[in-house]
Structures are given as C-alpha cells and as structure tokens.
Amino acid sequence: MFFSTSFIFPIITSLIYKDGAMSVFVITFLIVFIVGFIGWLISRNTVEDMSHKDGFLVITLFWVVLSSAGSIPFMLSGMTFIDSFFESMSGITTTGATVISNLSTLPESLLLYRQLLQWMGGMGLIVLAIAVMPLLGIGGGQLYKTEIPGAMNDQKLTPRIKETAQALWLIYLLLTVSCALFYFFAGMNAFDAISHSLSTVSIGGFSTYDQSIGYFNNGMIEAVCIFFMLLSALSFTLHYFAFYMKKPLKYLYDPELRFFISIMAIIFLLSVLMNYISTQEQASIRELLFHSVSIVTTTGFSIGDTNQWSPSIGFLFLIGAFIGACSGSVGGGIKSWRVLIMINYAYINLKKMIHPNAVITLKIGTKSVENDVAASVWGFFSIYVISFIILLLGLVATGLDFQSAFSAVGACLNNLGPGLGEVAQTYDSVSTVGKGILSFAMILGRLEIFTLLVLFTPIFWQK
What we know:
The chain is mostly helical. The chain has helices at residues 8-17, 22-43, 52-70, 72-76, 81-92, 108-132, 159-186, 190-201, 219-233, 236-244, 250-253, 255-277, 285-296, 311-323, 336-354, 371-397, 402-413, 432-446, 450-453; strands at 363-364, 367-368.
C-alpha cells in the first residue's frame, strides 16, 4: 500500500505534461493498492515477533514483490513481461541496466517513474544495509562496527532502529533535494534536475536521455554529478555521524573512505596512461575522470561512447566496479570494506610465512578485525566468484559473446548497469532467458549473495 503511493507522482506529472499516460498509472495504483489492502486485512490482527528466518525471507521478497509490482506500468505501456520485469528489477535494485532505447520519445510520467523506482530502491537499501541486515548477521554492515545507537548494537528490532531509519531517510532526502537544486542552477530544466537527482543520489544511473549526462555537454552539470555520486557512495553511517552526532571529522579518519578514494584515483591514473598509449580514439581527461567516478561508484552514468576507446580502459573500469562503493551506501560491488579486509588479511598471512611464530593482529585503521570476520569475508568472496562463473556460463549458453556476457554479469551482479560490447547501451539484444539470468544477478548482488542463496538451502526450511 505504501509503494502504491509512489504512482501518484507520475499521475501528477502526466497531468502537468498531458502526455497521455495517466491511465497507465491510475490502473497500476488501483491494482497495487487493492492487493496491499487485502494483504493488510488478512494480517492486521496478527502480532508475532520476526525471527531471523523471517528476516531473510522478508528482505528477499521486498525486492521481488516490488519489482513485480513495479513492472506493471511498463507492461501496460506495451513492453513484454520479461522486459518489464528486467527494467523494474534494474530500477528497484539501483542497477541502471535498461532495455529501452529512444528515451526522449517516452511520456514524461514514465521517464520520471523509472527514476523514482531507483530512488525508492536506494532509500530501502540504506535502511536494510545499516539498520536491519546487521541484526540478521548478513550483508556488509556487520563488518563495520559503529557507535550508532540501536542500529548495530541492539540485537532486536527496537524503536531506536526506527529512529535511526528515519534519520537515514532524512539525510537521503536532503541529499536528493540538494542535488536537484545544484543540477537546476548548473543548467538543467526542472524536470531533468529532479529526475537525475533521483538516480544520482540512489547511484542508479537511469537517465531521461539515451546519451545520459553526456546529452547536456555541460562541465558544471558533470561536476555536480561527480560530487553527489561520491557522497552517495560513502557509508551513510558517516553521514549519520556528521549530521546527527556532530562528528564531521569521521570523514577524515575513516579507513574505508581513504581506501575507496585511493582505488578511484589509481583507476583514473591508469586509465589516463592506457588512453595515452592506446592507438584507438583518445578520450579526454574530463571523460576519463567522470567515468572513473561513475563506474567505481557503480552509478553507470556516461558522457561519451566508451566503445570507441581502448577495450583495456573498459575492463579497467569494470574491475573498479567489482570493488565498488563503501559498505552502508547505496552503491554496489563487493564493497571497499571487504576488499580492504581481504588485502590486509592476505598480507598478514604472507608475513606469517616469513615469521611463523609472530603474533600479528589484523587492524583496519584503529579497529581490530577478528579472524572469523576476515574468514567470513573470504567466504563471501569465494561464493561471489562461484556465483559469477555460474551466471557467466548460463549467459554465454544463451548465445551472447564472451565479452558482452562477462561485462553484463559483472555490471548486473555489481549493480552497475551498462556493460561492454552488445550491452554498452541497452540490454535489448539479450535473449529472454538471458534477461532472466541477469535479473537474478541483480537481486543476488543487491542482497549481497548470502541473503538470497540461504533461501535455497534445505536447512533453512527445516523447523
């Protein structure tokens, strides 16, 4: 029922622009509201504490059910079921992969709706990543012990969790409004400024134009985009400290943030070097900087045709997307915090080979990381690699060439969006089975693998 209220905004947009699509959203609103209302009637008198198993199931169904409901406007607009579900799943998981071309021909209300899907997905993700998933022992947040009251320290859902969630939502909303205003003053019209702020702050990457941010050809707009992509790729835990606990210096002392910025800088410098020695079309420094930030943060905005550049640059950026944004952010990827732990853990094991009797503690910044946490990170990485290989084999079996398949799985599993080769612009050429595989990859990456895969284990369903 709450999700159905989101269709009010496209209805208002359709009234303003008279784009003829209002009936699509009115029908969708009624369908989703009535289904939700019936569910509420059936369960309104049921009072039961949520168990860990319930949590896994509810979190997974949150994305699946909303993706299904979100696909209705696309189907009513004439798209096939699989294309509609793919587009909706891509939006709600903030992936940004699309099967739609000629975006400028779509009704304004449908364009806004695509952006809104990503914004709502990002808002839900923040609360799940910081306030809910750690309590279930899943996701990346539990690796990052913080001082947030209620969110990490209490082991049950309490009113303090609700307060934390409200604070996070307010920060998210303030970032969105600020981004829209900056876009507007940088040169976008009001509709484009609002639309792109929704997908920028959510690190989604959907645009109202096929050329993405490159359509505007405006350095100020690109600067605004870079700034807010970076802010949204940082842990919202840090934003919470800065805004609510008056500790802005947390930004300077956070080891994950420093690592994340360092990785981005290295990838940018390597891309400049590769571009310089390449015999293919040269990209400008401005294009390389923008894409370094856009891809590593897993946003997926573009300002140029990356297919014309050296393929090595595209694969370099894709590697950056595998590392991804910070834990507790709306970004995708393995997450910088996990990669930082893996690197340090591997380094410690190398030192122990030289000094077998040495007692060496794994520390990230000033925090000690227990061995079981480091082992769980490596366990996550191994499952991640196995999942990637299986998805890649499945996609190649559908007939997609290896480069396109590799980048498509990487882009969807890391919630990046655009890939290389055939999927550099849209995923329309991917087969129906391939789109189903990639839709699964999106939710697998968004739920950080374990959350979804645990549902496929027999022990989960045993009493």
